[in-house]
Amino acid sequence: MQPSLAYPPIEDWTAPEFAPVVSALLAERAPIYVVGGAVRDYLLGHTSGIADLDLGLAGPVLPVARSVADLLGWAYYPLDAERDVARIVLVGDDAPNLVCDLAALRGDLATDLGLRDFTVNAMALELAPNSPPRLVDPRGGFNDLAAQQIRAVSNTSLTADPIRALRAVRFAGQLGFVIADETVTQLREVGQEVLATSPERHRDELWKIFSLSHPGDALEQLQQLGLLAHLLPEVAQLDGVAQSAPHRWDVFRHTVGVMEYAAALRDWLAPDQAADSGIELEPALAETLAPWRARLAEHMGEELAQGRTRSNLLIWHGLFHDTGKPSCASQEFDENGRTRIRFLGHQEVSARLAEERATSLHFSRREAQIMGTAAAAHMRPHQLLDAFGDGAISRRAAYRFFRDTATGGRDDQTGLDVLLLALADYQATGIERGEAWRRYLAGVSTLLDFAFAPTTKAMRPLIDGRSLMGALKLSPGPLVGDLLEAIIEAQVAGEVSNEAEALALAATLLHAEGR
Length: 515
Hints:
By secondary structure, the protein is an alpha+beta fold. The chain is 52% helix and 10% strand. The strands form four sheets. The chain has a seven-stranded mixed beta sheet. A two-stranded parallel sheet has the order 8-9. It has a two-stranded antiparallel ribbon with strand order 10-11.
């Protein structure tokens, strides 16, 4: 049985934030049409907090948009003068900006709606003075809302703009809908044509997809539709790559799991964001992270590029962390003659692939560097915790971990991103929670305590290079840097506490090297 969708009274439609814009436009150019997602969301009952509104009207639009913006004190931008598209923006001090895009109808309204992507986005509300709003639905979008399906407006909708293939996956995940069978067929046929669109559009659509509540499910759908092989072939090639214990799944399904667990961490650290993975953090993990929740949230909330934060980049770390495995796979036999699959050096290959893909998608250099670092270092927490056990990681080892994962200077804490990735990675192996998990979390707690300890944040080198060279009669060169690093490690470990002890350590190290 198809789900029912109550048909709301159109008279109830309201967008109080945009009421001045609507009134001003109706005074100059009537009727006007609310189009796109605002109509879809209204019909689904999502009527509050509208921050973006798309309007269609008879042209010319740019002079009307400028006139309304001037009247209301909004900013005006001619987005596409050739196609007669404008944007007006109200910048709020304490509230989100309001954005209204105004576009000239392409022909009459029915023709314009027929040029859109999916039926659920091809409806309009006609607004006219002294008349109730009227729903215009020439393509059956309302019925598709009721059936909870994403269906292309026409047989040429996807070829007209192949990036819509990614939008189909995004809308399906965002709304919890399925993609109609005939549209699935079109998506599989249009796959390679997506490459004809710009890398920036690929990046932006993939970013939106992986920012959804279930990015791993979206990745599986991209693979099933054949889109992943064109956009992220290094990820598509993970499908079917077997792994030995403790892994329960092949590399692709493991990657799906890592992205899902990463999304749970992302949402736990930012509970007010729109996406909600619905995956509860395992109680012991939540208890371990709780003392540092606010500070982790602050770190992961750092904006690395416009609209892109460390928080959602964590999902991309999960996406790329094992991409080096196919080219590094080898087999060996254990003492019982059983085959074991190994992936020696896959971290370095994964790091290269992550940076290359980030660069090709036109992420910022900083984002690409962080992606590469996360892939290269994602095994470090596992190795540290295996080496020390029961949380007894030394301060020297903790220092080295955060030093080696820093991407923006000594105070950078990309190691926290790596640590969260490692937590998602560990859980996605399918290992049963037990004593090993308890020991792992104890080690995580030790690393977080080191990262956020006031003494760690306030610590500065006991001596600088100039003073070191003067005291030991050294010339500038790599040796000075090596000695300073050894002093800092000893300082962190509590082995030296003043300049005299630092100089004595440096002199001892020089003597040991015969200098």
